[in-house]
Design brief:
- With 123 residues, this protein is an alpha+beta fold.
- The protein has a single domain, classed as Serine Threonine Protein Phosphatase 5, Tetratricopeptide repeat.
- Helices cover 41% and strands 15% of the residues.
- It contains 6 helices and 4 strands.
- A two-stranded antiparallel sheet has the order 1-2. It has a two-stranded antiparallel ribbon with strand order 3-4.
- Helix 1 packs parallel to helix 3.
- It is globular and about 30 Å long.
- 38% of the residues are buried.
- This is ANKEF1 protein.
- Keywords: ANK repeat, Repeat.
- InterPro entries: Ankyrin_rpt, Ankyrin_rpt-contain_sf.
- Pfam families: Ank_2 (PF12796).
Length: 123
């Protein structure tokens, strides 16, 4: 769980109030919540603390990896951070779109390029 703990001229500083791979009351991990909320600084802090990039969590009734959420929201900086932290570019089950497919659906060429450079496979 994350909480804004102070405000400075640079913006909100994020306090991590639990272990980076722990679950909160809705069964979501802090990294997944930070990615879903497009909180770039929180994502960066969690990844620096070695948060797992490939743990699937339940958000809105479905399980998905943080890289899938980042591609669905179109946040280029978060996608870049997750890929640098070795997120699985093929993260998806057979019934769900891959991160590359999501970026394609959004027409997000920058994210598509990052994913392809990171080894995403085109089917």
């Amino acid at each position: 769980m994350m909480r804004r703990v102070s405000r400075s001229r640079e913006g909100w500083r994020v306090g991590l109030l639990c272990e980076y791979n722990s679950r909160d009351v809705i069964d979501a991990r802090p990294l997944a919540l930070a990615v879903a909320g497009c909180h770039v600084d929180a994502v960066r802090l969690l990844l620096e603390a070695s948060a797992s990039t490939n743990i699937e969590v339940d958000l809105s009734g479905r399980k998905q990896a943080p890289i899938v959420t980042a591609c669905a929201t179109g946040n280029l900086e978060i996608v870049r951070l997750l890929l640098f932290a070795r997120a699985n570019v093929a993260a998806a089950e057979c019934t769900r779109p891959t991160p590359l497919a999501l970026a394609h659906q959004r027409g997000d060429r920058d994210i598509m390029k990052l994913l392809l450079e990171a080894g995403a496979v085109v089917f």
